[in-house]
Amino acid sequence: MAPFTESGLGEAAPARVGEDAERQGRRPKPVYAALDLGTNNCRLLVATPTAVGFTVIDAFSRIVRLGEGLGSNNRLGEDAIRRTIAALRICRDKMRARRVTRSHLIATQACRMAENGPRFVERVKRELDLALDIVDQRTEAHLAAAGCAALADPLADNLILFDIGGGSSEIVWLDKAGEGRPVSERIRAWASLPIGVVTLAERHGGVSVTDSVFEAMVAEVDRALSQFKIDVAPLARCKNFHLLGTSGTVTTVAGVFLGLQRYERRRVDGLWMRRSEVDSVMASLRAMSYEDRAANGCIGRDRADLVLAGCAILEAIRRAFPSERLRVADRGLREGLLTQMMAADRVWTEATA
After folding, report:
1. Is the pLDDT of residue 14 over 60?
2. CA of 121: how far to CAs of 31, 66, 342, in Å?
3. Which of 70, 154, 213, 326 could form a disulfide with 243 if both were Cys (CB 3.0 to 4.6 A apart)?
4. Do 208 and 280 reside in the same domain of the chain?
5. Largest Cα–Cα distance in the chain?
6. pLDDT greater than 70 at residue 211
């Protein structure tokens, strides 16, 4: 993925990118927006291209729990839809204020699963004039890889990349051979597990999680991983590989490890953790009460009932693919979407021509 920087996040920033350029008769930079609507979160990034990457000029993230109760009735609930539309309205207003010239807005597992997913998309178009694209599992896995691949250790031969979501979890075997080719051409195998933190917590409970409940969650994920483990059997002969994880679960583990009172993306994204360090944090999280988790600045009440389900998914992956090193990514689908759009528009080719 192309490198990127952040600006204007939490600071006073120009409301309209390109106004100065317009006044001076220059063509303003194109402005791109990428939105990822998942089972649990609604996330937006707005960015402008640079010579070799892009600069994030605005961002938004809100827990909406669109997939709440989806596992029991296969439908998106009205309360969840209202929460989500309220978040999407904020995203729409941000994109308008930033004069976005190109966007790709995707919806993932909750809308894929729900009987009324297509009708929800129609409602969003009607009420907000936003066009959501319900993407398939393959696209989601490839976007996650495109968004995070820049954090791969250049000295490693292979890596297992994973994205723990609210309703599904994507896992990819990325081969370092042929570096320089598009990420999609280096994917040796991938899988989309129909298990995420929301669905797992709803099935097993997330407020009070005993050791037996935690192990039951790990076992469920391990069963879902069975075919992927067969697909990546040649990886067992490779000793020089590492794990690369992106998700609220992995960034929470990193934040707790760093002892952050409040989550700081700049300290978390790209952090390396040793196996023993992950073990220690996971044990600490499992020992916390629900109230302790809710009071932790890196977890909060919105995610206190989901974080141990995420830890169970992470633990199943770590047991299936033992590695001494885990790299943490606070990036993913949105960055993959931005990279994909800018590459298609050849903005970097034009900048260096």
Report:
1. no
2. 24, 12, 25
3. 326
4. yes
5. 67
6. yes
Residue 97 CB contacts under 8 Å (≥ 6 apart), including other chains:
15, 16
Q: Are 139 and 166 in contact (CB under 8 A)?
A: no
- 352 located within any domain: no
Per-residue pLDDT for 177 more than 80?
no
Please report how the helices 307-320 and 211-224 are oriented relative to each other, as an axis angle in degrees rounded to 10.
50
pLDDT(15) > 50? no
CA angle in degrees (0–180, nearest 5) for 227-320-268 = 115
CA-based nearest residue to 1, from 352, 334, 353: 334
Q: What's the domain count of the chain?
A: 2
**Per-residue model confidence (pLDDT) at position 8:** 36
Range of the domain at 215: 151-332
Q: What is the mean pLDDT of residues 6-12?
A: 37
| CA distances in angstroms from 28 to 4, 24, 86, 338, listed in the order given | 19, 10, 30, 18
Question: What is the spatial distance between Cα 12 and Cα 95, in angstroms, rounded to a whole number?
Answer: 16
Distance CA 253, CA 139 (A): 27
Q: Which amino acid is at 51?
A: A
pTM of the prediction?
0.87
Q: Kindly state whether residue 49 falls inside one of the protein's structural domains.
A: yes
Tell me the Cα Rg of the chain. Answer: 20
Distance set, CA 135 to CA 32, 36, 306, 328 (Å): 19, 10, 24, 25
Q: What is the CATH number of the domain that holds 72?
A: 3.30.420.40
